[in-house]
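Just curious: can you write whichever protein you like plus the matching structure tokens?

***
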Amino acid sequence: MKIGLNIRKLRVQSSITQEQLSNALNVSVQTISRWETSANYPDLEMLPLIARYFSVTADYLLGIEGGNNNMKLLKTVETFEAPTREEAEKMVQKFSNEKFPELQGHTITEIDGKIILEVEKKFGVNLEDMPWKS
């Protein structure tokens, strides 16, 4: 696993010390040292914190390159808080007018005085074909 080498590389590139990183992540300097020498690995819960700190992905930290070209994004479920039921309905109408991704369904509920909109969108495309891929 390349995580220790990647953490060290990112830390050095960022010109920060092990102590500065340990303070930012609320762990000991020894913990950072053990990660960087691959004596130990960060807990799973630490991966997103480390990735966010260095503005990289967890895949990058783990040394995962490329992807599985067979993977498809089939659908997403998104949840929004709207100021009013009418605003939620406007959002549904906007999603309905979009050709991609296709709106599959929605629910609007009121929970503790808040209007919650949940929408399901269908993609069905290869991840490599997504618009954000360059």
About this structure: The chain has a mean pLDDT of 86.
